[in-house]
Amino acid sequence: MIPFNYILMCLIFGTTFLVIKVGIDAGASPFFSAGIRFFLAGAILFIAMILQKKARISLLLRKEMVLTGLALTFGVFASLYWAEQYVSSGIAAVLSATAPLMIMLLQTVMTRQNMSASSWTGCLVGLAGVIILLLPGMTVAFSTVWAAGCIAVLTGQIFYSAGTVYSRRVIRRFSDTSPIALNAAQMLHGGVMLLVLSLFTEQIHPEAMLVPEAAFSLLYLVVFGSMMGHTIFYWLVAKTNPVFPSTWLYVSPLIALSLGVYLYGEPLSFLSLLGGVTIIAGILLINLKSLRQLAGSRTNLAERS
Question: Is residue 44 within 8 Å of residue 225, measured between CB atoms?
Fold first, then answer.
């Protein structure tokens, strides 16, 4: 059951980048569609948690939920949805894979611990991968909006890394509350923030969400991307450990790149592919110690059984 759910989670997270692109290209307003997605997903999950007596309304009033929603939902997806107007879904997915690198750097600064040689090598390799990935947009004719889109995705990952580090403290502080309820609460807050941003920055056309492609995008992202994908993630954390489920970040970008090229006709240059592989190699080097520990623990578990 664990391998099946892991593969399913990777496929879901790997497809969300393309599905976001489909909705935006169909005319959906980026901030509005993102806000509706997370508000609906958060509301449905939170109501389910209340009915199961695993959450209380008072949880929504805690500042921790507001701050987590600001970082993990608003900051990440406001940047991502805006950026996918100008960059391909595959490039967005690969740039999003820099999050583990940023998390590691942030934790190192906060804890003042020295990084291992493999971690430093991974940082340099990952940075080289980002530079290689950005080269196709700068070699022939520099595109300002394309570069801005790439920078926006990277900015979103800064929010994600800060939110991830902070959310670990929140989970410990609310140890008696279901992680799914915590995730639902932060999605609700983040969704409201995105809708407020949309109100002040976009010309909202709700009828655009009725276009078949936009409606499909919203439905898929609410049900599969936000509800099912994250629920599987937390289930895997409970059944294994926090490291193993997070390895989706190494698999999903390649899925997103492939889907974008074969299903949506997105361009893929040799430098883009090389940059993507280089970024993932850097992330693997950064997490080499954790991955070795994970492999060892799984081997011991198999021997015992």
Answer: no
